[in-house]
Design a protein that fits this description.
The structure holds two protein chains of two kinds.
Chain A (H helix, E strand, L loop, with lengths): L1 H4 L3 H23 L4 H27 L6 H23 L2 H28 L5 H18 L3 H4 L5 E2 L5 H24 L1 H11 L1 H6 L4 H27 L1 E2 L6 H14 L4 H21 L6 H19 L4 H6 L2 H10 L18 H7 L8 H4 L8
Antiparallel strand pairs in A: 1-2
Helix pairs in contact in A: 2-8, 3-8, 3-11, 3-12, 3-13, 4-5, 4-6, 4-11, 5-6, 5-11, 8-9, 8-11, 9-11, 12-13, 12-14
Chain B lengths: L1 H30 L6 H19 L2 H24 L7 H23 L4 E2 L7 E4 L2 E4 H23 L1 H11 L1 H6 L4 H26 L2 E2 L5 H14 L4 H20 L7 H15 L14
Antiparallel strand pairs in B: 1-4, 2-3
Classes of the chains: A mainly alpha, B mainly alpha.
Chain lengths: 377, 290
């Protein structure tokens, strides 16, 4: 019974929600065939959730920015699609082919993640953003100019089909796998190491955390799932076009993460569902030049939400006007109510204050001997 | 002979990249942020040239209007989007900058439509001597950007504002204690960077007259790569990186086997340089302090 003491609904709510959706729609699909558009939408939502949750791990928990998530997805889509096209006639089993394609696509994307992450993650600063951006462009250029026999070139790579009745169920099961891996990682001791890197890299290093190793692990897992999402994409769309995996697609995934709240997996799931749904419905409404309104909307989401959530000037406003306070007010009918054991977050020293308090040189050198002449040349 | 032509064309593309890279590197050095929207300021400059030229018909007036408008735009972006986030995490600033880049692109598309506009700023023709055929615009671009870079270097080195910029980039806190108006310096930096972007937009229209809302996107990313290759935060580094990128691009475009992969090659150079010398060619190693 002691184990159940730690049981919290919020840890399992994501699995539960996804499982219910899968069972309900799965039953509907098996009973009476769902319309093609619904099945397609469900597949897209599952893909978006995998992408958003895996990017959320990098952006929200590790605190690094990846702008090449679509690039890793592209690698997965092309290689997974190619593998399945080659294996399908040999194996004869659709399911087995799909599983092998997912493994191959995911693993190759993960290897790309290691190759890209190694130079970029050793460095402090925004290098990962630059390198992943470059990676997305490299991948796109290479697949676009590939020969027709290898990856279809500019025409795109045709991929084998899978029964639409079951594909989305399979996709949602993969969402559950992805959630299980990422949520358990984040809640483990390693997860706390990861968030400590985000909050204060130097302090994390001082406590003995191997920063590069953790960064690389997180980034590799994230690219693995991006690759898996890519394989699902290739199955869902029949052909893989490299032009679909452009910079804008990476930004769209980033919008999902930011809209859902950085470092909030449930939020990412909801935002991914919402944005994918909006995307498909608006596709028919906003045609031609009107389609740009959607980009404008994304841009405003990024700017307004990030400034609202991060501006130092708004910190006291945020402390009094967030969802938690709203819920507490609703529950207790007492606006000033605060539990006694609740931490007062406005009292916790911020990063800048910490920097001022600990203004010591970490690298021992001759100049530290004399603190008055720290910057002496 | 062909090689010299390629080299000159590469130098001309490279000097355009260098102009854009200067904007990135100066803002990075002083505000410690990657201004992702910088590439799109080029595009706004291009549209400003287009608007002025349709109204008045003079490319020089168009350039002047573009420079002034881009400076104002740069200052506005800085005040509205980046200043509220000073002191927040670098990730937040980076995401806002990406949002800003997206906002500029989509706004331009709403105003001007998605169909590319043709803007013929100037047609100089070709110069032929000693067996060489060189388009004159490449020489104009090269000459103008050299002058601008020299002026900028002198400005940073010898004027009061320029020295204040160096001070802020070295140590913001100490600069503030010395009585430097840090916010003012950051604003000036954004203004200078955006003015350079307007010039780059003019040079790019001189090269190919097609203007669309993604004009600045790819050159922006490449110039940014150039700035990182040269060592982000270093002004001579941005110039060197830009020129290197331009020459590599021109040479690679001349070889049919690798021409389609030109973009990929440039980015692979970036990854290799980060692997071998992470601070870039001319970047400084900064000591990290708690």
């Amino acid at each position: 019974m002691t184990k159940l003491k730690n049981f919290k609904w919020k840890h399992y709510i994501n699995y539960l929600a996804i499982a219910i959706v899968t069972i309900v729609f799965g039953a509907m699909s098996l009973g009476s065939a769902l319309p093609f558009s619904t099945v397609n939408l469900l597949e897209k939502i599952a893909i978006s959730i995998i992408l958003a949750v895996s990017l959320s791990m990098v952006v929200g928990f590790l605190g690094e920015l990846s702008l090449g998530h679509a690039g890793f997805m592209c690698v997965g889509a092309y290689l997974g699609g190619k593998v399945s096209a080659l294996l399908e006639p040999v194996l004869g089993s659709e399911f087995l082919t799909l599983v092998i394609a997912l493994i191959v696509g995911g693993l190759i994307a993960a290897v790309c993640g290691i190759i890209i992450g190694l130079p970029a993650l050793r460095l402090k600063g925004d290098y990962l953003a630059i390198v992943t951006l470059a990676f997305g462009e490299i991948v796109r250029t290479i697949f676009m100019n590939s020969s027709d026999e290898s990856f279809g070139g500019s025409l795109g790579l045709p991929t084998p089909r899978y029964d639409k009745k079951y594909l989305f169920i399979f996709a949602f099961i993969l969402v559950l796998v992805c959630l299980a891996v990422i949520q358990n990682l984040i809640r483990s001791k390693h997860g706390r190491a990861i968030t400590s890197i985000r909050d204060n890299e130097i302090a994390a290093r001082a406590t003995g955390i191997n920063i590069t190793k953790y960064k690389l692990i997180v980034f590799t897992i994230s690219s693995l799932f991006a690759g898996i999402a890519g394989v699902l994409y290739s199955y869902s769309n029949y052909t893989v076009q490299s032009s679909n995996f452009d910079y804008n697609y990476s930004i769209e995934i980033l919008v999902m993460v930011v809209l859902g709240g950085m470092g909030n997996i449930s939020g990412s799931i909801i935002a991914a569902t919402l944005i994918t749904y909006l995307d498909t419905t608006l596709q028919t409404v906003l045609v031609g030049d009107l389609a740009v309104l959607q980009d404008l909307f994304y841009a405003l989401i990024l700017i307004v939400l990030v400034i609202y959530n991060n501006a130092p000037a708004l910190s006291s406003f945020r402390a009094n006007h967030n969802l938690g306070v709203l819920v507490a007010r609703f529950r207790k009918h007492d606006p000033a109510h605060r539990r006694d054991d609740e931490a007062k977050w406005d009292r916790v020293p911020t990063k800048i204050e910490m920097n001022e308090i600990l203004s010591v040189d970490i690298q021992p050198s001759t100049s530290t001997m004399n603190p008055d002449k720290k910057e002496g040349k | 002979m062909e090689f010299i032509e390629t080299l000159i064309s590469g130098l001309s593309i490279g000097s355009t990249y260098a102009m854009i890279a200067l904007g990135y590197t100066m803002v990075y050095g002083i505000a410690k942020m990657l201004n992702f929207a910088h590439g799109d300021v080029i595009m706004v400059g291009g549209y400003m040239i287009f608007v002025t030229m349709t109204a008045l018909g003079n490319p020089i007036l168009g350039l002047a209007a573009a420079v002034i408008f881009c400076m104002l735009l740069g200052i506005t972006i800085e005040k509205l989007a980046y200043k509220p986030l000073r002191g927040a995490s670098p990730l937040a600033v980076l995401i806002t900058a990406i949002g800003m880049s997206y906002l500029l692109q989509s706004t331009a598309q709403i105003i001007f439509g998605s169909a590319p506009k043709m803007v013929v700023v100037a047609d100089f023709g070709n110069l032929s001597f000693a067996g060489l055929t060189i388009p004159i615009y490449t020489l104009v671009t090269l000459g103008c950007s050299l002058v601008i870079m020299v002026v900028l270097s002198l400005f940073v080195k010898y004027t009061k504002i320029g020295r204040a910029m160096i001070a802020v980039s070295e140590d913001r806190g100490a600069a503030q204690l010395m009585g430097i108006n840090v916010n003012g310096i950051i604003t000036i930096t954004f203004a200078i960077g955006s003015a350079l972007a307007a010039f780059a937009g003019f040079f790019m229209l001189m090269k190919s007259p097609s203007l669309s809302n993604t004009l600045g996107a790819m050159p922006g990313i490449k110039a940014f790569t150039a700035a990182v290759i040269g060592g982000i935060g270093s002004i001579p580094g941005a110039m060197a990186g830009g020129i290197l990128m331009g020459v590599v691009e021109a040479i690679s475009l001349q070889i049919p086997a690798i021409a389609p992969y030109t973009d990929a090659i440039e980015f692979i150079i970036l990854i290799i340089i980060l692997l071998v010398k992470p601070t870039g060619i001319l970047g400084k190693v900064r000591r990290e302090k708690v």
